[in-house]
Amino acid sequence: MSDLERRDRDRRLAAVTELSTWIASKEDDPVEARTFARHAGWPPSDDDADERSEAVDEPAEAIDEEAARSIALRALGRRAASRQELDRTLERREVGPEVRDAVLDRLSSEGLVDDAQLAQDYAERLRERKRLGERGVAAELRKRGLDAAALEPSDEDAELQRAVDAASERRRRMGSLDDATAERRLAGFLQRRGFGGSAVRIAIERSRPTGPRFR
Q: 85: closest CA among 149, 123, 141?
């Protein structure tokens, strides 16, 4: 052992001896002894460990109504949302059920959450952009927690026209298939888009190409 290492060891031993002697002289005041020991870098006592454990186990502060409202408003700022969607957003942020209900009731009373209007708007987009049948529209609404019963009565003629348009567009991509295969696949395609059997049959008939076909 070098002289430097020996001197360092002696200093540490002297510090430990001094601390032990001081603590022994303070046996009548164990709180003061523990305080001194902590400031001196002495290993923490069991009481200190218990205090740390209690601090770790302390539950996080609950999110209040105003904070939850801010979370909901940020979600609404990104896109229109149903009550169910906002409820799930707040639940993921660990907002309690009573606070969630209060926030959603308030947003509804302010007109910021309106499931009936959202269902109408969303259904219209699904019809126009995706050319879905009413069954398909209802299925998409359910995914967002919306009730298709809130919709205005559907226009059967308009739905049939969407089916014909969707069938015609799809059939143009099936030029390499024989008629039987093309129409079988076309029927499955229209059914998956939520059109009923009658609309599917008529759409297939009306979308059949006219004139000679060359292969």
A: 141
Alpha-carbon distance of 141 to 135, in angstroms, equals 10
Axis-axis angle for helices 46-57, 30-39 (nearest 10): 70
**CA 35 to the chain's CA centroid:** 48
Name which of 24-38, 115-129, 174-188 the model is least confident about.
24-38
What CA–CA distance (Å, rounded) separates 95 from 181? 53
Record the tokens describing residue 37, joined without a space. Answer: 């020991």
Cβ-contact 199, 133 below 8 angstroms: yes
Write the DSSP symbol of residue 174.
Answer: G
What mean pLDDT comes out for the span 2-19?
A: 54
Segment 91-139, tens digit of pLDDT? 999 999 999 999 999 999 999 999 999 999 999 999 999 999 999 999 9
C-alpha 1 chain-centroid distance: 63
How many H helices and E strands in the chain? 11, 0
φ/ψ of 190, rounded to 5, equals -65, -35
* pTM of the shown model: 0.65
